[in-house]
Design goal:
The chain contains 9 helices and 6 strands, in the order H-E-E-E-H-E-H-H-H-E-E-H-H-H-H. The protein has 244 residues and is an alpha+beta fold. The protein has one domain: Class II aldolase/adducin N-terminal domain (L-fuculose-1-phosphate Aldolase, 3-Layer(aba) Sandwich). It has a 6-stranded antiparallel β-sheet. Strand 5 and strand 6 form a beta hairpin.
Amino acid sequence: MNALLEARTVVSLGSRILVAQGVSDAFGHLSCRSPERPDRFLIPRSLAPGLVTPDDVVELDLAGDPVSPALGAHLFLERFIHTEIYRRRPDVQAVVHSHALPVVPFTVVPGAKLRPICHMCGFLEGAPTAFDVAAYAGPSTDLLIRNAELGRHLAEHLGGASVVLMRSHGYTVVGSSVQEAVFHAIYTMKNCEIELSARGLGEPAFLSAGEAETCARTISSVTGRAWELWLRQCLPIEAASADG
């Protein structure tokens, strides 16, 4: 299997994992930087994530245009989330955008921040408050990142963090691989679920900055274990072994 085909396969599998884990439904998208050229990336055509196959994954440049003009695929309006993060962050190899409902409350309360509440979520340390597209596009938009300018503002707001909230919309995560980005997307949602539940008992205790850093370093070395499990929950074991 050549590198591009393998990357397309991983993007399609990651898209299906995100649906199975409740991070994506009919909406949301996952991409990865091209293994052959850092100024290109692979993302599904505009399609529900649970339906994505390797043949649905297209290659775009950092302007958000198909590498093959004859491709003719309908593209995601919000592909500029991906273009501008890849342009600004050479360390990022994969991006996930999601509307997972447990995360949305954290985007609509002024000043609310994502803070790591369990040892699996140390990567959340340093996440900024929610990005508000209205600050750049006015009060009458559909809240989507429809162009490179808005994508640039979002990428600047993300900075060096792993996760950025998006007001009344959802969130975007990054990773050093598809597997890590998928892990970050899933555990961002889980962290929000835990905090919302804990607040019914009282004020939660969060990880210290030192704990978050140490936990993130430890957990980053074993995210592959989670990927293998999630993959087998989506596919028969034989197929998962072949594709994983």
